[in-house]
TrEMBL record:
Cofactors named for this entry: thiamine diphosphate
A molecular function (GO) term: aldehyde-lyase activity
UniProt protein name: Phosphoketolase
SUPFAM superfamilies: Thiamin diphosphate-binding fold (THDP-binding)
Family: Belongs to the XFP family.
Annotated GO biological process: carbohydrate metabolic process
Sequence ranges assigned to domain Xylulose 5-phosphate/Fructose 6-phosphate phosphoketolase C-terminal in this UniProt record: 605-807
Amino acid sequence: MSDSNELEVESISPFGPARSTIKGEPLTKEEIDKFNDFFKASLYLSLGMIYLRDNPLLKEPLDTKHLKARLLGHFGSAPGQIFTWMHFNRLIKKYDLDSIFISGPGHGAPAVLSQAYLEGTYSEVYPEISEDEEGMQKFFKHFSFPGGIGSHATPETPGSIHEGGELGYSISHAFGAVFDHPNLIALTMVGDGEAETGPLATSWHSTKFLNPITDGAVLPVLHLNGYKINNPTILARISHKELENLFRGYGYEPYFVEGDDVDTMHQAMAATLEHCVLEIRKFQQKARESGKAFRPRWPVIILRSPKGWTGPRKIDDKFLEGFWRAHQVPITDVHEKPEHLKILEQWMKSYEPDRIFRDGRISEDLKDLCPTGTRRMSANPVANGGIIRKTLRMPDFRNYALKVDKPASIMAASMTNMSMFLRDVIAGNPTTFRLFGPDETESNKLGKVYEAGKKVWLGEYFEEDKDGGNLAPEGRVMEMLSEHTCEGWLEGYILTGRHGLLNSYEPFIHVIDSMVNQHCKWLEKCLEVEWRHKVASLNILLTAVVWRQDHNGFTHQDPGFLDVVANKSPEIVRIYLPPDGNCLLSVTDHCLRSSNYVNVIVADKQEHLQYLSMDDATIHCTKGIGIWPQFSSDRGEEPDLVMASCGDISTHESLAAIDLLLQHFPELKIRCVNCVDLFKLISHDEHPHGLTDAEWISLFTDNRPIIFNFHSYPWLVHRLTYKRPGSHNVHVRGYREKGNIDTPLELAIRNGTDRFSLAMAAIDHMTGILGNRGAAAREQLRNEQLKAKAMAFEVGMDPPFLKNWTWPHTGLWSKGEARVASEQHLH
């Protein structure tokens, strides 16, 4: 008995004559013949890359000696991607389109590389790989081969901004690329396996942020070839109507092209792509002529074609074309089975290489199907964004300085102050800079930026949005509660020649760990590719930090993103922890001006003590690490103790600990060291920012205890300093995965980073200097710590005299004065 709620079932086979939403026959018979030959040439190159090391045109009978020893690469998605690319070339020529191609399916390089070779771009960037038989042999060998080019669309691939190594980011990268590029169309292939990822699912909503007046357009092509590595794909196994409803629900107008009959598929794809391009142009013209931004139903194409299209349907009675076996290397045992080698040879010869390639080059008639110059998608300068990158117009960050007459005596909101600088960066670069973040800009105390550019919004507006909504279609702030999509937008934006910054809560930046990993790898490879121009740095501002997530509890306490970044190549990552507002300004200015880095800035958004004047902050940040004499008592002598800190809240507690120690032991010679640039700690041999050992000893000594209060997990500092002279003297305090709904001081106490714990640790490690004289002081410090903790449990607040602590500028107290003052405060 049928269930009335059962979903409809219909034929969703990729085989048969073309079935398409748009009808029409825009191609002549002659054009179809040319497209067939161009398709064959592309498919031949794709198989040649996977299999051949020699005999590139099969002039000799195929032998195992002609094969690569290791067969690597993926063929399955290549035919559909090639088919889409070559038909879009017709429209680029007809309408003079400015376009790039983004290959979303994993290991999609054969499709992209074959087009780059046929368009001539590959030989331009790699002159040794010429368009002749010898060049073709090198081209084949170059693919997935040591010293060659990868099977993804890596940085070595002309025309690529998207590697596709990790799936899920093609759409967000594409939209990032077209923001503020009003004439650009990003033709984006989305693999049906990729479409199952969370990041891809959220990125469909990017149309709600696309302004048809100022932005270009993304034309997504969802490629339903049915299978992943060894499994059906979800979207390929749901009904036509359900798929149509899904994309209508997303706000798109879906157009289907389905089948495997090549001649009829040519007409269907040509008609559908042209219809979509005209729709895009119609929407843009309407918006630009009226001056009114609106959100149309942007087109999306759903291309259903067999996996491994045009390959053998079966081999040894096992399915190949249209099945998962075509996903990677379609015939894996050609070294061992002569009969399978023969099948491969027959398959490759079915593409007629002897006719189509004349001395390794296609005819001028076929070449004429390709655009020329920078209209080739493989040669578009947008995909080598450093070529078109403009230098940011930057205000002087010194003009936003916080006034600091006496160090550690005034409280100010460093982030709120910095937001005025960021506001003017946005104002000065209205088409080349955007701020990205997952619905946290206002929460992160960056609300001043709305004075220069509101939040981009093309959704519905309510009357109450006028009351602080800060929404506008022409905004400059990109907010969506998806860290993946925001990060993808930013990556696409900077890779295509612009600048930006992502702000996020520190605990949840882990959502994009792997995305940042991939971008780091991209930049690292770009350093090895001579023709790749430098792009603006990817800048990440982390706030709402672990030490001020006391009210949100344990789930919001995680500073471990720094460990992820520290694992990446020292050539392309930087981590900065400015201790106060003026340092934050200096660091932000430096990061926004830089190129080819991933910069991570960690700074809290609440009010904090301010330590340095702007002049001092600039010097300190330029050095990256240094002694703070204003908080030191060694005065040029050999110190008894080094108190070091890295991070704004960690610095506060470290200075308060110095104050406590000098109250009890005014004769102690304490050296205060502060670190802004985390990689100063690592050896100069391992990171270009690292201190030499001589510089290390000049700051930290090699024979004195070092109490290092660190913002993040303590193990990271140990890892960075393990080779240093006297590294056994480095005692690091940091977050130790202890938390709850705490007061700020109680949270620090849980993790041993509070002033009392630091002072007691210093006493414990100075027994050689203090002997047992520290016992009484240690006991008193422990008592004070317990009383403070008890007060937090009793009234839910830290003792005001601890919360409002400032540096004593009246001079160092005697031991007796310290005890009296301390007892008065606690009682």
